[in-house]
């Protein structure tokens, strides 16, 4: 029986949903790195070596083969047409399939207005932090380090708001041996990852990770020493506008000696047809719509700085996946 184009398209959509989870799993289990390094693997041998269930492991590779990420000849698996790009963007899939799985699973309940009270959604904060750690490396890091290298002062204490796994702070400390750092996040599982990593890399005596809601942070004596303030991939939590202005003012007061504030975040896409959205954009914006989190545009951000007590020193427009931008701010 002939299969129509519509049936083929729907089958691809359905299989892609399975493959998205398989891709995230393949990264976490080490299969993607092995395929990238060696160019092939045997599914049964890989399962035995990694103490995995053989049938589940082969099914994982079948799912990847269904969307041409790998090619499979029985148990031999090699990269295929879509492997390189899937490997590059694997952290996006992990954000979706691991970190935000329950959010999207509960779409019907969350969409009903009567259910949108209290803590009406849940995400895996440790998985989000794990994914964002890599997302940051190619969506923000080159521009972030250019901004750090261009500072007209040598910072002594850096503070990162929404620090997640703490990777950014630890990289700063490795580059500046005499500096100290503070990391703030409300997700305790992510902070536990950060503390473990800091201890493993010998930085535990130079960095302190604090469980705190950035939006409602209270004054602390040690904040007076901070001269470099950073915040990446959580600035949209400052909004809506009135709250954002108030948060910026509060940060100006909480960190009175901050000489530079590097604020990097995604911005709302404009002028792109729904059918042309790149990976991550739809999931990020739709997911935050469900969470009730406003995603500001670049113009929205630029409209609040002066009112919030900050002056825009420089802007880095990145636009790799979700309208990324880094604002270099200094006290007004």
TrEMBL record:
<dbReference type="Pfam" id="PF13649">
    <property type="entry name" value="Methyltransf_25"/>
</dbReference>
<dbReference type="GO" id="GO:0032259">
    <property type="term" value="P:methylation"/>
</dbReference>
<keyword id="KW-0489">Methyltransferase</keyword>
<dbReference type="InterPro" id="IPR036388">
    <property type="entry name" value="WH-like_DNA-bd_sf"/>
</dbReference>
<dbReference type="InterPro" id="IPR029063">
    <property type="entry name" value="SAM-dependent_MTases_sf"/>
</dbReference>
<dbReference type="GO" id="GO:0008168">
    <property type="term" value="F:methyltransferase activity"/>
</dbReference>
<keyword id="KW-0808">Transferase</keyword>
<protein>
    <recommendedName>
        <fullName>Methyltransferase domain-containing protein</fullName>
    </recommendedName>
</protein>
<feature type="domain" description="Methyltransferase">
    <location>
        <begin position="159"/>
        <end position="252"/>
    </location>
</feature>
<dbReference type="InterPro" id="IPR036390">
    <property type="entry name" value="WH_DNA-bd_sf"/>
</dbReference>
<dbReference type="InterPro" id="IPR041698">
    <property type="entry name" value="Methyltransf_25"/>
</dbReference>
<keyword id="KW-0949">S-adenosyl-L-methionine</keyword>
């Amino acid at each position: 029986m002939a299969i129509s184009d519509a049936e083929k398209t729907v089958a691809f959509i359905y299989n892609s949903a399975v493959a998205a989870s398989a891709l995230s799993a393949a990264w976490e289990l080490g299969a993607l790195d092995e395929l990238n390094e060696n160019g092939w693997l045997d599914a049964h041998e890989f399962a035995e070596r990694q103490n995995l269930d053989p049938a589940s492991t082969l099914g994982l590779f079948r799912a990847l083969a269904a969307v041409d990420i790998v090619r499979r000849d029985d148990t031999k698996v090699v990269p295929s047409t879509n492997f390189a790009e899937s490997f590059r963007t694997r952290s996006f899939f992990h954000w979706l399939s691991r970190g935000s799985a329950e959010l999207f699973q509960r779409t019907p309940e969350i969409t009903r207005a009567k259910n949108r009270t209290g803590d009406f959604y849940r995400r895996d904060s440790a998985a989000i932090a794990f994914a964002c750690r890599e997302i940051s490396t190619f969506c923000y890091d080159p521009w972030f380090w250019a901004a750090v290298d261009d500072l007209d002062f040598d910072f002594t204490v850096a503070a990162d708001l929404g620090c997640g796994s703490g990777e950014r702070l630890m990289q700063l400390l490795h580059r500046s041996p005499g500096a100290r750092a503070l990391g703030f996040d409300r997700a305790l599982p992510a902070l536990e990852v950060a503390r473990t990593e800091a201890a493993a890399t010998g930085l535990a005596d130079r960095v302190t990770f604090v469980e705190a809601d950035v939006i409602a942070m209270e004054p602390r004596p040690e904040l007076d020493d901070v001269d470099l303030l950073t915040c990446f991939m959580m600035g949209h939590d400052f909004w809506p506008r009135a709250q954002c202005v108030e948060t910026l003012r509060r940060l100006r007061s909480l960190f009175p000696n901050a000489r530079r504030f590097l604020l990097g975040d995604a911005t709302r896409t404009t002028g792109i047809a729904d059918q042309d959205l790149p990976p991550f954009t739809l999931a990020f914006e739709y997911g935050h719509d469900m969470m009730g989190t406003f995603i500001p545009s670049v113009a929205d951000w630029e409209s609040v700085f002066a009112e919030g007590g900050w002056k825009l020193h420089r802007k880095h427009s990145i636009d790799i996946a979700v309208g990324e931008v880094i604002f270099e701010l200094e006290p007004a």
